[in-house]
Each structure stands twice: as structure tokens, then as C-alpha cells.
Amino acid sequence: MLLIVTLIFLAIFHLTYKFLTKWVWTLLLFAIIYDFGLWMVEHWQLSIVILCILLGLYDHFVYAKRHHSKTLFGINK
Fold this sequence. Notes:
The chain crosses the membrane at residues 44-63. By secondary structure, the chain is mainly α.
């Protein structure tokens, strides 16, 4: 979804850049960054859950195989 929105934004940017001044696009860029920051603040629990899942998957599939079955958390399998 984000990729589609980005592509649409880039197409609009390409088509309208001649008609709008550069400062409008700079302001829009800061607005998008600010909006992403607000989203992260409101959805921090989701970010933590995803981070924990990724850490567990990394521990299971990558770290243990490279360190002789010892996990990130110091537990021998």
C-alpha cells in the first residue's frame, strides 16, 4: 500500500512540479515526515511486537546456527 501511495505521489510530483514552487514540496516533505512520526507514536505497541517477532526469528534461524546452537539469550539448545 505504501509503495502505491509513494508511486502516486511521485507521479503527481513529476506532473505538477513546473506549476508549483519548490518551497511547497519542501513543506509537504516535512509534513509527511511529521505525519509518520505521529503514526509511530500512536502505534508504538505494534512496532514493539514486530521488533520482538523479528528478534525471535533472527535468534531461531540465524544466530543459533552461527553460534553452535547457543541462542541470543544464553540458552543452549
